[in-house]
Amino acid sequence: MPKAGRVTDWEYRWFQDGDLHEPIFSSNENEYTDSLFNNSVKVYVEFMLEGKNTGNFSCMGVRKSDMQQSHVSDPIELTVHTIPYTDLTASPSRWLRVRDSVTLSCEVDRSSKGWKYYWYRAVPYKDGLPSSSIKSLSMEMLPGSQHGAGGSLSFSPVGLNHIKAYVCRAGRGDPAYYTRYSIPQLLWVSGSSPSATLRVSPNRVQHFDNDAYSVSCEGHGNSTGWKVKRFTWSKGKSECGTGWGTVMGSSCYINTSTYDSIEAIYWCQSDSGEYSDAANISQTTKPVILESPILPVTEGNSVKLGCRYVTPPSDLGAGFYRYDSLISSERTGEMIIQSVSRSDEGSYRCEHPVLGESRSSWLSVRASSVSHHLSQASITWLLYALQMMCHFNQP
Length: 395
Fold this sequence. Notes:
With 395 residues, the protein is mostly beta strands.
């Protein structure tokens, strides 16, 4: 018997589910292992295409010098397990202000029983920490999550210390069988009244691949030293002037030739550590983009969404979708949401019947100050009413 893995004069053939007419793999080595990655993937893909996860495999040898065949081996059963994905969401939004509340929810794809959940924050790569598919990031486990926790994580009230990229995964069984890490979810928290406003020119979230755009900071009050910063999944947090942008006055002109400029989160930060609101800016090679507000809009205001094209077609009509549901078809390629509310928050895209669909962008809706607190006029009226009640109740 040749030693396992040794190249010999024999050719080895592997068969699946009793079909001896067409081997699924043949080799001069007498092992068929996971080191033969492409062929392992082939078996996995065949299972998925056929809707199966289990098969019976057998092998035989053929001597190349005289084509003598061995007996076919007894079959063995092989089961292929797919690694589940996890989906991480933030409710009511991942764009927050100080003193808001937020809940992160982690769900396992196609399964919900018996899982323990593990919570992490994504940090720049560190030796000794696990990494996800984004090799430049490591997963640092949050306190209290070592032995598994629930499928939700809440913060109330939030502060600037909650500005982090959060990640989850789940495990069950002994020894534990783990899901994949979720896609990182960045929570952004700005002051209740930010001391600076982030400006993007042209003023839109999505840009075409060859578009040039700039980001600038408009400070208010006495705050000084505002700088444009950004976060990408490939490089983490960095400041304009470190390769991806050129500082000119108060503006940062983005170098759109770098791969990690395809999608990034931008914000303004002062020397004293104050933050503006943040914006998720993206570029695309698609011929269609969605025009939508860069910053969160306040409840009660109207919002215009538009479909923009690299080369405008004769027919500008487009459909507008919230998540995967069509909400409006407009001949002008523009739609207006009157008096927005928190229920209008979500992921939007547009689609042209010929040119196709845009990428999706998140529309963030912020509660008005009146909905959180009594307005000054209401307080004045209330004090007046109390005074009148006291006056009429005097003996």
